[in-house]
Amino acid sequence: MKIAEVSKRYGISADTLRYYERIGILQGIPRNASGIRDYNEANCKTVEFVKCMRDAGMSIEALTEYMDLFYRGDETMERRKAILQNQREDIRRRIVELEDALSRLDYKIDHYEDVMEHERDILK
């Protein structure tokens, strides 16, 4: 699969895919005889994982460390697990913060609805 197809499939720009390759997040992307990147299914699964982690807020630094460990093999499994556990805790913390923000928004929206309804009642 060419880079443009991978880009479209995962919603990641071709420039970003090249950047990920340049900094080592994506490794082993095969090229055809003309030197054009030719992503295989394993590469696509890696792109999908990387996108998921970035969408979840994982920093480039943490993702680079994780992927470097991944490419080194099974002896790095414990450290990779720790990185993912840290990411999970960050997500849980952000969920709590978002729930708090959502509650505040709901409160303010309800307040405005009450005020607007009261004003409509006065105008009747």
What can you tell me about this protein's structure?
The protein is elongated and about 80 Å long. By secondary structure, the protein is mostly helical. 10% of the residues are buried. The protein has one domain (3-123): Multidrug-efflux Transporter Regulator, Chain: A, Domain 2 (Orthogonal Bundle). It has helices at 3-10, 14-22, 41-55, 60-72, 77-123. Helix 4 runs antiparallel to helix 5.
Main attributes?
about 120 residues, mainly alpha, Multidrug-efflux Transporter Regulator, Chain: A, Domain 2, 5 helices, about 75% helix, elongated, MerR-type_HTH_dom
Order of helices and strands: HHHHH
Question: Per CATH, what is the topology?
Answer: Multidrug-efflux Transporter Regulator, Chain: A, Domain 2
In the CATH hierarchy, the architecture is Orthogonal Bundle
Low-pLDDT stretches are none
- Into which percent range does the helicity of residues fall? over 70%
Keywords: Coiled coil, DNA-binding
Pfam families: MerR_1
Domain HTH merR-type: 1-69
Organism: Adlercreutzia faecimuris
Quickly describe the structure.
Residues 1-69 form the HTH merR-type domain. This protein is mainly α and 124 residues long.
Secondary structure: elements and pairs:
Elements: H1 3-10, H2 14-22, H3 41-55, H4 60-72, H5 77-123
Keywords: Coiled coil, DNA-binding
InterPro entries: DNA-bd_dom_put_sf, MerR-type_HTH_dom, MerR_fam
Coiled coil: 74-115
